Structure formats: structure tokens, C-alpha cells
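It is worth pausing here to work through a concrete case rather than discussing structure prediction in the abstract. The textbook approach is simple: state the sequence, then state the predicted structure, then interpret. We follow exactly that order.
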Amino acid sequence: MISFGVSALSARLVALLLATMAQQERLRFEDALDPQTDQWVAVQPEVDDGTPIARARGLLTEERYGAACELLDDWLEDNAGHDRAIEAHYLLGEAYFGLEDFRKAHEQFEIVVDASAGDLFYKSLRREMDVARAYLSGERQIVFKILRLPAYDEGIEILDRAWERLPGTRMGEQALKLKADYYFGIGD
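Step two, the predicted structure:
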């Protein structure tokens, strides 16, 4: 009986260690090989203060979400294949979230999650969970620009997808906990 407990404990520790390593591992999508050190280093996109993305960041910090949406929508129409288009989608999602248009915010975050890896992937997934939290707390989904409908089911679906994308990680567990808390709260 004791040996069973020890092996089960060691299996849990190994699983926890592997999950932690998987969480910390970054995909090489955002890294470049430095020829001088022969090491992988994170590549930071060049930030020019005159770019529309930099201006949109400024508008978001000033909480001018409508202006940021307009600027980013126009930029994305002209630059859909640009290297920073994924970042623009993330910022557009943040702007829609600030406007409390959670459906459009979720659409933008979903684009980022499907097309990126690394930091933007985790940030977008975290924001999707914030959208789910808003839906489960009673915020309504805007449909056809007039109707505001309850979106509890959409919130649950978002949490299910978060768990499917990151099973066994802290973020995945938070998604499950949010879902369980919601069902406990409604008595289901």
C-alpha cells in the first residue's frame, strides 16, 4: 500500500514537472538564432512611435477605445499580411473589450490564439477567459448592433476551448475552476 502511494506521488510530481516545463517552453516562432552567441534570443519587433500600432497603444492607454478601433480597423484592411497584423488584432480585441463589445473582442482574440505562439498566445487566451468571465457574470452579447442577448453558453464554450488548448496548466485549471464556480453558483 505504501509503495502504491509513493509511485502515485512520484507520478504526480513528474506530471507537474512536465506541465511546468511545457508552460515555460517558448516556441521558436518569436525567437531568432544569434550567430555570435549561438543561442536563441527573443526578437522584439521594432517599435516606431509613428506607426499606427504605436498610436493605437497610446489611444488604449488613454482609454479612447473607439478611436483605437477605427485606427486599427483601417490599418488591418490595408496591411492584412503585415508582420505585426497579429499584434494589431490583439490590440483591436483590447479596444473592443474596453468598449464592452465582448463578442468582437473574442473574435479578435481568437484570431490571435489561432495564429500566434508565445506571449501573444497566452495574453489572448487570458483575455478570452476574461470575456468568458464577463459573459458568466451576466454581461450581454451585442448581436446585430442592437440586440443584447445573454451569453452564458458562449462563456462556457470559451472556457472549454481554453482547457482544450492548455490542459494541465495553471491557466487551463483556472478555466475549469471558473466553469465549476459558475455551475455551483447556479445550483447545477
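Step three, interpretation. The longest strand covers residues 31-34. The helical segments are 2-24, 52-61, 65-78, 85-98, 102-115, 119-136, 152-165, 170-186.
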